[in-house]
Design a protein that fits this description.
The chain is about 75% helix and about 0% strand. It is mostly helical. It starts with 9 loop residues before the first helix and ends in a 13-residue tail after the last helix. Helix 4 runs parallel beside helix 6 and helix 4 packs antiparallel against helix 18. It has one domain: MFS general substrate transporter like domains (Growth Hormone, Chain: A, Up-down Bundle), CATH 1.20.1250.20.
């Protein structure tokens, strides 16, 4: 049903939230979602560093050793969809808690896998938890952050996530090069995510989700708490709210809400954006250590290269938070992807130690600059009643590209013989450029209330007024 715009309506409550110029819900919320992101992203790439050791332990071929990566990504797709449906039906907080439990159990069980078959099974379960966590948190942060700072705080949350990527080479260097059981230790570190459950039950539910489910009193209590925190921090009263158009909340199964205009077009566009992005991104994140080892670098050397380039991850996340709301997001993303693609091409063309470090560093900065903004843009494109499901059906199912990436990369590497290294990286660059070409057709949502975005077609606003 549709809420009116009178006193206590959903529209009034959202207008009160979106007038707040800072993050209004306290540091505990940011810490919980930040740690969830950190461990989820750590778990995405830890397997790629562990693969050479796993292959040796279980006596695997190169092709067979890619199966855990593919299994994890297929689990990501299923977990993202199932848990996002739960998020849209039962709440964002419930979904964050269930996702954390899922990938904690998966990581712990992977640690103690003593057959390759069970390792694949538990990496699938871990992947389900990772996909569930990323979709739930992306939806949650997008709904909790007021419109003027949504990009900034999505970027800040992702400082944690890409710090998770950055620490993987450090952990790998400490464990894999010194202990025969080091690959098991890599997975055990991921299981530490379960500690966040101590605080996860204390975070507030999304007021947008509460409004969509006709729980206005609870939504108002959350927003009042945010208003009080913001006024205390700012030392002054908040500006008067500007009443916005209300969003229509139809009580349908979340997926069905996406298969009608304008959401069907947005879903198709973002689905292909994410497919091509993951065809590139997971080829880089999942196969770079293996390609460098096959190129002749030792495992320690290739890990050290990627450790140094990984310093770019937190820098990129800081830039994403800084610029997240200054320019229209879809164009900021496009620029970041082009820089990322050029760095991949340089990596393949000039594979010396110095070039690998320099190009890899620039690549890492660019990757982590645009990824948080792409998560924000994806969540902004869908209605509250199906926002988490929309994220799962784009980013989540888009991981089909991620699942295929190691297979395509290894096939290209093998097919081109002595130029296989170059062609593998040119493949990564090309798929990223295709993604960039699609982006201008997306919605322009920067600094706009989510409710306003749903009444607008895609447009071409390039710079956002301050």
């Amino acid at each position: 049903m549709k809420k009116g715009a009178g006193s206590g309506s959903g529209a009034e409550l959202i207008s009160r939230l979106d007038r707040i110029p800072i993050w209004p819900f306290g540091s505990t919320v940011l810490w919980v979602i930040g740690m969830g992101f950190l461990v989820a992203f750590y778990d995405i790439t830890n397997v790629s560093f562990a693969l050479p050791k796993i292959a040796g332990y279980f006596h695997l071929s190169s092709a067979a050793s890619a199966i855990p990566v593919t299994a994890s990504l297929l689990g990501y797709i299923l977990g993202s969809y199932l848990n996002s449906t739960l998020a849209d039906l039962k709440g964002r907080r419930t979904a964050i808690i269930s996702a954390t439990i899922l990938f904690t159990v998966g990581s712990l069980a992977t640690t103690f896998s003593f057959s390759y078959g069970w390792l694949i099974v538990w990496r699938f379960v871990t992947g389900m938890g990772i996909g569930a966590e990323i979709a739930a948190i992306s939806t949650y942060i997008g709904e909790m952050a007021p419109a003027p700072v949504r990009g900034r705080y999505t970027g800040m949350a992702n400082i944690w996530s890409f710090t998770g990527l950055a620490v993987v080479p450090f952990v790998a260097l400490g464990l894999l090069t010194h202990f025969s059981w080091g690959w098991r230790g890599m997975f055990f570190v991921g299981a530490l995510a379960g500690l966040t459950l101590i605080w996860a039950f204390r975070i507030p539910e999304s007021p947008r989700w509460l409004i969509a489910h006709d729980r206005l009193a609870e939504a108002e209590a959350v927003i009042q708490n945010g208003e009080a925190r913001a006024e205390k921090k700012l030392g002054k009263s908040l500006p008067a709210p500007v009443l916005l158009a209300d969003e229509t909340h139809e009580q349908k199964f979340p997926t069905s809400a996406l298969f009608r205009p304008p959401y069907l077009g947005r879903w198709l566009l973002l689905f292909f954006v994410w497919v091509f992005m993951y065809l590139s991104d997971y080829a880089w994140l999942g196969m770079a250590p293996t390609l460098l080892v096959d190129k002749g670098y030792s495992l320690a050397s290739s890990t050290l290269f990627l450790l140094v380039t990984g310093i770019g991850y937190p820098i990129g996340a800081i830039l994403s938070a800084w610029f997240g709301d200054r320019f229209e997001r879809k164009y900021s993303i496009l620029v970041g992807i082009v820089v990322y693609a050029l760095s991949l091409a340089a990596f393949g063309l000039f594979p010396s130690g110095a070039t690998i470090v320099i190009a890899g560093f620039i690549l890492s900065v660019a990757l982590v600059f645009f990824f948080p903004l792409l998560y924000a843009l994806t969540a902004e494109s869908f209605p509250t009643q199906a926002r988490a499901t929309g994220v799962s059906l784009t980013d989540g199912i888009g991981h089909v590209g991620g699942a295929l990436a190691p297979i395509f990369t290894l096939a290209i590497y093998a097919a081109f013989g002595h130029t296989g290294f170059l062609m593998a990286f040119m493949y990564m660059a090309l798929t990223a450029i295709i993604c960039a070409i699609l982006l201008p057709f997306g919605v322009a949502a920067t600094r706009k209330s989510l409710e306003v975005v749903h009444h607008e077609p895609a447009d071409s606003v390039g710079v956002v007024s301050q």
